Inverse folding.
């Protein structure tokens, strides 16, 4: 994931990203179970190791990205009403994530600093939805829910927290 275009060279194991506009995503396949990539990005020079087979996210933005596993459902059966209790739980969870707390592979949530790579799943067919996309549902494949991971910029997370806090605030009569 990058801000603006990124150049990926799998032969030389390099990723170069400038500081462009907009969010961009590129996918690439590495043929070995261990690969070391040199990064040249607005956040500086770095090296990331992709140590085994699986799906990784490499952050070459100059900002942190945060994501987690999301169970997308059929929009016809999606929840239309949220309780104050679940709203407060969501705010607490997002605040912890934005601080990089309670982030573990077992929880299937991710806090990816600039110039870092994180293994998301062993399933290379998983779907990754990057920041600024507004996807709300996805079709089942062979009757099964797909494995989907949704990522946000830290700016989006902070804006969401503010919106949810406004919804959770007591209404003045």
């Amino acid at each position: 994931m990058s801000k603006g275009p990124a150049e990926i060279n799998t032969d030389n194991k390099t990723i170069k990203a400038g500081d462009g506009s907009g969010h961009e995503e590129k996918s690439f396949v590495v043929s070995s179970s261990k690969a070391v990539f040199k990064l040249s990005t607005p956040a500086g020079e770095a090296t990331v190791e992709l140590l085994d087979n699986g799906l990784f996210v490499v952050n070459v933005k100059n900002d942190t990205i945060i994501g987690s596993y999301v169970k997308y459902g059929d929009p016809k059966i999606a929840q239309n009403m949220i309780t104050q209790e679940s709203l407060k739980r969501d705010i607490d969870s997002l605040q912890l994530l934005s601080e990089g707390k309670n982030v573990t592979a077992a929880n299937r949530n991710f806090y990816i600093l600039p110039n870092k790579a994180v293994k998301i799943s062993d399933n290379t067919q998983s779907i990754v939805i990057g920041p600024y996309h507004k996807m709300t549902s996805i079709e089942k494949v062979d009757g099964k829910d797909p494995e989907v991971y949704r990522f946000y910029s830290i700016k989006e997370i902070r804006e969401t927290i503010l919106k949810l806090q406004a919804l959770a605030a007591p209404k003045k009569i």
In short: Residues 2-168 form one domain. The two ends are 46 Å apart (CA to CA). The chain has one domain: 2-168.
